[in-house]
Amino acid sequence: MGLTVAVTGPTGDIGISAVEALEHSTEVEQIIGMARRPFDPARLGWTKTRYQQGDIRDRAAVDALVADADVVVHLAFIIMGSREESARVNLEGTRNVFEATVAAERPRRLVYTSSVAAYGYHADNPVPLTEDVPPRGSPEHYYSEQKAACEATLAEIVTGSDLETYVLRPCIVAGPRAPALAEAMPWNQLPGPVKKVAQALPLLKPPFPDPGTPLQLVHHDDVAAAIALAATTSAPPGAYNIAGDGVVSMSAVAKQLGARPVRVPRIAASAASQVIARLPFVPSVLEWLHVGRTSVVMDTAKAKSQLGWKPEHSAAETLSALAQSV
Ligand SMILES: NC(=O)c1ccc[n+]([C@@H]2O[C@H](COP(=O)([O-])OP(=O)(O)OC[C@H]3O[C@@H](n4cnc5c(N)ncnc54)[C@H](OP(=O)(O)O)[C@@H]3O)[C@@H](O)[C@H]2O)c1
């Protein structure tokens, strides 16, 4: 009998590729996916997957999802949203998934996609970050704070249980089927005709500040491979950093995604971040500016040596693949 794998958030940027990797795994017999919107797995040619609509905030729905699973893969999350809405889904919903998985009889393994953001954007972070560095989060960025809180919740809930827990910490995920990075660029929010004119005339291209902070990127298929490995491996449970080889500059991101890079001193990004952190009210979307203030480059040696993970796309190749698709 092969494994039954339950997946929350199978329809997201990572979810689609992750389910596809699980569909191709000979060790996986059945996949049960759950997210809120209607979705038909047959539309993507998936044959092992059945889908049920449900919200991770609904404990009964989560209990029903994990009851028949050997492995639970938790991906459902709100990345771009308000602080308040994201907290409801990410903190309450994630707690439900962790508690339901521990409480159910059948699951023996949980795979949770945390993030590089769980480490937080601290000036004293070592470069590169290894998995031994505690995930402290940065309270001024809701996503970072919530990712660190979820890891703490996971540690609290699984203590004393036999559940094998694999925590993956990917950097920014990109590629043709994960366009969020390109979509988040301010100029991509412009109306189509305005964007076209701006793209055609180099001087009209929107400026994009580059404070010199290096960025890691990972291709959606490589993250998917890491998730499928974590679901099936005999490698030890624990945390694994996940990033493509090499780094790209913010200037390269800007150039390839249609903007005009402008080098600014690192101190400018740090100062902007400090000002935003001190304001009494900040729109949640602005909190993402903290990401650029310091390097959060991760060491991926552990995923390679212990999990046997081998990314097929470098950061630069992932960026090119994204740029060609938008
Ligand atoms: N994308 C990245 O760059 C990146 C990097 C590092 C880590 N991660 C982490 O990887 C995980 C997956 O990310 P992603 O990029 O695939 O996210 P995504 O594209 O935003 O997809 C989120 C998925 O979760 C589902 N979902 C959201 N709220 C839900 C709820 N209340 N109940 C049930 N399902 C819900 C969504 O479907 P519905 O809206 O239909 O419910 C969708 O399937 C997240 O934990 C994220 O933090 C992502």
Automatic annotation (TrEMBL):
Transmembrane segments: none
Domain NAD-dependent epimerase/dehydratase: 5-243
Gene3D superfamilies reported in the protein's UniProt record: NAD(P)-binding Rossmann-like Domain
Alphabetical list of Pfam families matching this protein: Epimerase
PANTHER family assigned to the protein according to its UniProt record, in alphabetical order: BIFUNCTIONAL POLYMYXIN RESISTANCE PROTEIN ARNA
Name of protein: NAD-dependent epimerase/dehydratase family protein
Highest classification ranks of the organism: Bacteria, Bacillati, Actinomycetota, Actinomycetes, Mycobacteriales
